[in-house]
Amino acid sequence: MLTGGIAVIGGAILGPVAANAQADSAAPKPADVQQHKTTPGGQYQPSLDTLGAKPTEQPGTKPGDPVLSKAEFDQANRIYFERCAGCHGVLRKGATGKPLTPDLTKKLGFDYLRDFITYGSPGGMPNWGSSGQLSEAEVALMARYLLNDPAQPPEFGLKEMKDSWKVIVPVAQRPTKKLNKLDIDNLFAVTLRDAGEVALIDGTTKKIELILQTGYAVHISRMSASGRYLYTVGRDSKLNLVDLWMDPPQTVAELKIGTEARSVETSKFKGYEDKYAIAGAYWPPQYVLMDGATLEPLKVVSTRGMTYDTQEFHPEPRVASIVASHYNPEFVVNIKETGQTLLVNYKDIKNLKVTAIEAERFLHDGGFDKTGRYFFVAANARHRIAIIDTKEDKLVKVLESGGQTPHPGRGANFEHPKFGPVWATSHLGNETISFIGSDPEKHKDNAWKVVQTVDGQGGGSLFIKTHPKSENIYVDTPLNTDAEISSSVAVFKIKDLTKEKPEYKVLPIGQWSGISEGARRVVQGEFNKEGNEIWFSVWNNKAQESAIVVVDDKTLTMKTVIRDKRLVTPTGKFNVYNTRNDVY
Ligand code: DHE
Q1: Residues whose beta carbon lies within 6 Å of some atom of ligand 1
Q2: Which of 67, 123, 250, 539 has the fewest CB atoms inside 10 Å of its own CB, making it the most exposed?
Q3: For residue range 178-212, what is the model confidence (pLDDT) as tens digits?
Q4: Where exactly are the structural domains of the chain?
Q5: Does the pTM of the predicted model rise above 0.90?
Q6: Architecture of domain 49-147
Q7: Among residues 224, 316, 171, which one has the least CA distance to residue 574?
Q8: Which residue's C-alpha comes closest to atom 34 of ligand 1?
Q9: How far is CA 269 from the centre of its chain?
């Protein structure tokens, strides 16, 4: 359901769109804004609800500031972190939205703020009041809250991490060989988002082998280089380390690395397999290097610092995607607000070497090219892709993605019939699917250029997928506002890309699931190890039934539907083999 400019998905509010509060000189008039529509790209913003739920100290009131009681402050603070902080920043210094610090808000005044929050703006601010999302009293409360100093949520350093750290099964008590009969390489770790759980599903039998308790609104899973260990990260920054050799697999260690986090990865360079793990936080802005087998936190590094372009201090640069280099003992850590890609060398953690690459602001998600050397990362709010050479440790290029708000997931690699090897992304903001040349040796003229764009079903796409053995490219559109489009997937035949206007086939995955209730958003295709079938989540809200639909890649027909009451809000799926080997 899309309400008042925010996407309410699977029962979770994804957050507000970017605002331009202080950009407009006069309060917006209802007549100007009634028509404005929020784009899917704008709807997809972080909701910092873990932070919102934490007790935060109320800043003192300056003379002339509106006075908020403790109860009013707590309520406003919660609303701010859940709905506003994703765009305007935890400290209100601005991110994709404008800053809302008191020096600016006081110039605008109470009436302006109240009206802006009520009616929103065509620039992207949702109409929180007139949509009914916030009551009149809540809007007035938020306007008063914004006239006060920002609240500063607590830091989370090594001490707090160590206090949260649990080694449930010490390394010495773990098996020395695989004890269970699971086909680990073809297991799928499936995020059960609103349950705070991960399901382990067998890729052949489609049986749910196990449900693991994980962090709040668990986000992604990554596998160690050997495939033995599975790491999950919750939005509350809780990491679970699962030993897949045990019978049954179980969580062997836990750690919290902050208050809000989204990414985790493990060392993959030769000689360092399974040795280190890394996780990145949104709050506090930091990344943490850990022992791969126990999650013992070894080094906490702040990301606060200068923006790459204007070289201004940013107090809360969030850590977005992290991947492990195959060419150097390094993690590739992408920092949103400062626009830097950090190559963090883990060879000598005591004397940490970090190469800071000037990439682009608002880095989000990305993946490698098929050789594993070049990393493509979407600077989504800038509509650009930055390409990093992880062998030479340098920026290759930043280019326009060809569409609005690129969101590749890890992207898709295939041999284009005309242009040679390409990496592909779809877009949140429109129907464009872009193919970027990725072979600087044999196809030099095409390398690092958008060689072709094709039109998919519409905007609201989050993930594009193929497999080296597949002849198809699958594009989801879970955030499209049209129910038929958000519950289906477009499939392009690679061989048809030579046509002037390549056509796609629509797979009605939501309908195939047999579920009739809910929005049935279809999200994130993931191939099995063989590369002959692709799994899609049919994502309803927590109180409704969800499912996973397995599609035969050759015939593009439905093969199996996994329906089980334990499959609560399934979203991301991570096949062990494909994830540990970066096959996509
Ligand atoms: Fe994600 C990856 C952040 C909302 C499903 N998501 C990522 C990554 C980041 C990120 C930084 C890259 C991790 C990496 O590679 O190391 N996601 C965010 C947000 O900030 C955002 C927009 C809002 C929020 O408050 O969290 C957000 N993400 C979502 C969802 O609503 C999705 C669709 C459903 C869910 O489970 O939460 C979702 N994100 C995913 C998935 C991946 C991901 C499935 C990994 C894709 C892959 O193929 O690797």
Answers
A1: 9, 14, 44, 46-47, 191, 193, 219-220, 235, 262-263, 320-322, 364-365, 409-410, 462, 523-524, 571-572
A2: 67
A3: 999 999 999 999 999 999 999 999 999 999 999 99
A4: 49-147
A5: yes
A6: Orthogonal Bundle (1.10)
A7: 224
A8: 571
A9: 24
